[in-house]
Design a protein that fits this description.
Number of strands: 7
CATH topology of one domain: Rossmann fold
Number of helices: 3
Strand content: 15-25%
Order of helices and strands: HEHEHEEEEE
Strand order of the largest sheet: 1-2-3-4-5
CATH architecture of one domain: 3-Layer(aba) Sandwich
Radius of gyration: 17 Å
Largest sheet: 5 strands, mixed
Structural class: alpha/beta
Length: 150
């Protein structure tokens, strides 16, 4: 996505960025958008609870998470962090591909029992299925999604 939109793509370095090195790397590379797993983001947010000054003044404007479900606790950590003004998207798609099928913008306030997967992105249709792989009614909770290009 970054290369198609004219942005710079920064691939992960050999060492994983921890709560201290992450802010320095974001500033060094001038990152404004990051896209990674909810578990990693949760770990960073937990660490910054005790040291919020580490993330003050970061140029981030958008955090995109995907690859696994976002825990409601992760949303609470973000909402109580200095980064709560950064847009936060839950990107849902097929695990086997880098295709995003739905997006949900997580609000800076409010609580969730489950973080929604959102609405289909343009040119996609999504049908949520139950345990028997039958469509569920709109708004109902399902087990998986069937995605089609329109």
């Amino acid at each position: 996505m970054s290369l198609l939109s004219g942005a710079t793509l920064v691939l992960r370095e050999p060492e994983l960025w921890n709560a201290t090195t992450f802010p320095a790397k974001v500033k060094f590379y001038g990152l404004t958008v990051v896209d990674w797993s909810p578990g990693y983001w949760h770990t960073l947010l937990e660490s910054w609870q005790a040291r919020p000054q580490l993330v003050a003044g970061l140029p981030l404007r958008l955090v995109i998470l995907g690859g696994e479900a976002i825990r409601p606790e992760t949303v609470k950590l973000w909402q109580s962090s200095p980064l709560k003004s950064v847009r936060f998207l839950n990107a849902y798609g097929m695990t086997e591909t880098p295709v995003t099928a739905t997006l949900f913008e997580i609000p800076a306030t409010g609580e969730f029992e489950r973080v929604p997967i959102g609405q289909p992105v343009p040119h996609r249709t999504v049908t949520i299925l139950d345990e028997q792989l039958q469509p569920v009614p709109p708004g109902a909770v399902g087990n998986c999604a069937l995605v089609a290009l329109v």
